[in-house]
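Possible regression after last week's pipeline update?

I re-ran a chain I had predicted before the update to compare outputs. Posting the input and the new output here so someone can diff against the archived version. Not blocking, just want to make sure nothing changed silently.
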Amino acid sequence: MQPATITVAQLTQQLLDLGVAPGGVLLVHCSFSKVKPVEDGPMGLITALQTALGPDGTLVMPSMSDDDDRPFDPRHTPCLGMGIVADTFWRLPGVLRSDSPHAFAAQGPLAEVITAPHPVDVPHGLDSPVGRVYELDGQVLLLGVDHTANTTIHLAENLAGVRYRRQKYAFIIESGELRRVDYGEVDHCCANFRLVDDWLERENLQHRGIVGHAPARLARSRDIVRVVVERLRQDETIFLHPFGVDEECDEARASLLSSGGKVR
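New output (post-update):
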């Protein structure tokens, strides 16, 4: 049996009941396949998010490029890997999108601040959209996804000073010329980001509920960063699988060895 269609008004109330703060900054990661069916599809969910935040709130979504081998164009490059809601959002009138392969899109009074230029080689540091959401005391909303999709945890890794890196590259247009940027990114498979659920809930820092038909999690960016930094300073490799389990984690662990670091 097809689930009942959730109206925009119902979605808005679900978001407010969960704890979305009107007038605040809200960073959303979403799997719409878990949220639907809702009135007006992805646009209906975006409308509900905008309505819950109100005119003084700022809505933020990831808007990263799907293709590392082509230069990023904020006017045209899709972000289907971030989901249909994110790929719909950046195309809307009045939405700003940062000019980076690691782009985020935002709408609201603080959109220009959040989408200001940010470095390619440190995608999720303080000088990035997720870093700015953190400094603005924003909230992070996970709809139909868990913390494995939570980019703010990468910010915490950077702030904790973890030493592991994976080698990445991106193409950018600089002064009218195509340029390849090679860099080491704090990255791995991210499966162990699921640990953050327990860390937050031990301190009653995460709200859970249903939005549409999807499980939802809501927490302050600053709370996420604090609890993660605390754990990483106790064990730098807490998110990394042991050698031989996952190639991405293997690369991250190997980078510690190549730099002379100790691997637990």
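Follow-up from reviewer: compared with the archived run. The CA atoms of residues 33 and 144 lie 8 Å apart. Marking as no regression found.
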